[in-house]
Structures are given as C-alpha cells and as structure tokens.
Amino acid sequence: MRLDPALQDAMIAAVPSLRASALALCRNPDRADDLVQEALLKGIVSIESFRPGTNMAAWLYTILRNQFFNEYRKRRREVADTDGSFIGTMVSQPEQECRLQLAECIAVIATLPQDQREALALVGAAGLSYEEAADRCRCPVGTVKSRTGRARAGLAKRLSVDSAQDLGPDPATRAALSGGKLRWAA
After folding, report:
1. Is 84 inside a domain boundary?
2. 167: domain CATH number?
3. Which of 10, 56, 75, 181 places its Cα 20 to 30 Å from the Cα of 97?
4. For residue 112, how many other CB atoms are within 10 A of its CB?
5. Which of 76, 109, 128 finishes a domain?
C-alpha cells in the first residue's frame, strides 16, 4: 500500500503531539511509544476512512485514545498471576466425562434396594442428619446409618471405587461423594 506523500507528511508531523498525549494517558514512556506506533499503524491501515481537509493529528489522537481505553478495559478484567498460582486453581474436568460418570452413578443407584436408595438420598443428597433421616423414614438412627453405609459400599463396589482418586479430582468432590465422612489425602 502506497501512502499519499501529503498524508504521510501529516502523519509524521502529528507524532510529537501524539507522543505527548500518550505520555499523559499512560505515564510510561515505553508504553507511550507503543501506543503511538499502534495508532499510526491503525491509521495507515484505515487511511481510506480519513477525510482529506480534516485534522490528521486529531484523527490519529482519536485512534490512540480509543486504543488506550480498549487496553485499559481489557487489563481491568485480567488478573496478575506472575507465579502461576491463580491459573492452577482453574482446573476442571472435561464436561463430557463428568456427564458419563454421573449417568453411570445414577444407573448404579437405581440398582440399590429401595431402603438403601432412600437413606442415601436423604443423608447424602439432601444433606439431612442421620437423626432427621430416621424421623422421615420412621426407623431407628442405627438403621439409617447401616443403610447409608451399605448403599455407599455398594456404590463403591459397583463403580470400582478403590481410593480417593477414583472419587474425583478435588477435595470438594470427594467430600460430596463420601458424604463428608472420609478424610482421604489428596
């Protein structure tokens, strides 16, 4: 792309005022130089939108200012993570695998005897205490405890759960699946 010499001269003449404006915006000489360079580059790429006879410096300043504010808004949403500790907390299992595991778990729960399913649902899923579950089932607390224990053991056997790693990738998942009773190390 060949630039009209008059436009090129106008762009070059605008550089000192662009740099002063960029310094006022970002207060960093290196970043100011980068902003000026980006504004000039965008100006060259979109030179056909410049109307001859208007103020080239003002047009380039508008590009520079918009570039600065776009970057500012983008940086506000970013998190400084120099040592990588934040990104390490953002680990998730692939969604499709979790769905398959959930479907398998639901199918296995359906094979449990009715009394064990009920106890597991009340204690494990609904979060009721053994006493509250016993009141709902109209049976002794010990019966609810043994039904829940047998249900968990049956699930673990049918789902081939041998260790904490088989229950999930993180402590919250392991606690939810174990009803908060198991204290396995990660």
Report:
1. no
2. 1.10.10.10
3. 181
4. 19
5. 76
pLDDT, tens digit, 9 for 90 and up, residues 73-112: 888 887 777 777 777 777 665 667 767 777 888 888 899 9
Q: What totals of helices (H) and strands (E) does the chain contain, helices first?
A: 10, 0
Phi, psi (rounded to 5 degrees) for 94: -60, 135
Compute the distance between CA of residue 92 and CA of residue 172 in angstroms, rounded to an integer.
12
Six token digits for residue 186: 């990660």
Q: Can you tell me which residue has the tokens 């609810």?
A: 144
The conformation of residue 138, written as its DSSP 8-state character, comes to T
Q: Which amino acid is at 161?
A: V
Place of tokens 């600065």: 68
154-160-165-168 Cα dihedral, nearest 10 degrees:
-70
Does residue 83 sit within a domain? no
Q: Name the nearest CA neighbour of 52 among 95, 9, 115.
A: 9
The identity of residue 43, as a single letter, is G
